[in-house]
Amino acid sequence: MKLPNLxxxxxxxxxAALFGAIAILCLLALVYAxxxxxxREMMAIVFNPDGGLGKFRKIGxxxxxxVTLGVGLxxxxxxxxxxxxxxxxxxxxxxxxxxxxxxxxxxxxxxxYAWLTLNQSTLRG
Length: 125
Prior knowledge:
The structure is a single chain. The longest helix is centred in the last third of the chain and has 28 residues, at 91-118. The protein has helices at residues 9-35, 57-82, 91-118, and strands at 38-39, 44-47, 119-121. It has a 3-stranded mixed sheet with strand order 1-2-3. A hairpin with a 4-residue loop joins strand 1 and strand 2 (44-47). Helix content is 65%, strand content 7%. By secondary structure, it is mostly helical.
């Protein structure tokens, strides 16, 4: 299988749109992981760190934030690099990559901050 030529601006634009879509999917998964179990009355995210998948939730939020930031930065930089080039016949892919990458990079740290300030582990007694 022949590998794509990333020196071509059209290929960069297509990969920017692809990575932008992946960044948005990672961002949606991060929103679910952070706000699952959110209690509006207590204004806290309640989870059980001892049972089931709860013991992996904290590390999952950190890894999910890192992956979202990495994929979003890649999408934004690929889109920005191919954005104004004369040989790029699909500039909309570049714009999609830049927009989705910027959205993911700007919201992922906010979700991490929300997790760090609002999480409350349940107590057994």
